Amino acid sequence: MALFRWSDRPDVFRPFEELEREMTRLQNEMSRLFGGVVGSRPFLGGVGVFPPLNVSEDADNIFVRAELPGVSPNEIDIMVEGNTLALRGERKLPEAEKEVSYHRRERDAGRFSRSLTLPTRIEADKVEASFKNGVLTIRLPKAAEARPKQIAVKVAA
């Protein structure tokens, strides 16, 4: 049996330490690379998409709710073309903020656009939109052929 002095013993953890250093370096590089695009928010999980949307429906309508804090309703364009809803707009910085230096800036400004495919046909000429407390709500009435229909059962005589 060979005897080794403690200092001559092979370091079995060295490859893992090097791997950990490399992973940390890679993580720092990714944070630096994407930090300018999405700020300090997590990159995964759909965060960073603006505006965030909720889409729901009842028997007669589809509802799209978009969080648009700091956006004037006059700066929002809503288009329905076929089965696609498009939202476009701009969130502007207040005039007073243009002359300041930021220590931290997590709220973005600038133009945005989102489009989504609607789950069913709608009546485009009856679409309504309202804006309250920074939330845009769009009501899209379903087309008559897309609404659920009650079928009466006829009883044979």
From TrEMBL:
PROSITE patterns according to UniProt: SHSP
Per the UniProt record, the source organism is Desulfoglaeba alkanexedens ALDC
Q: Name one Pfam family in it.
A: HSP20
What family is reported? Belongs to the small heat shock protein (HSP20) family.
Q: Protein name, please?
A: Hsp20/alpha crystallin family protein
| Source superkingdom | Bacteria
Cross-referenced Gene3D superfamilies, in alphabetical order? 2.60.40.790
Matching InterPro entries: A-crystallin/Hsp20_dom, HSP20-like_chaperone, Small_HSP
Region forming the signal peptide: none
Q: Where is the SHSP domain?
A: 44-157
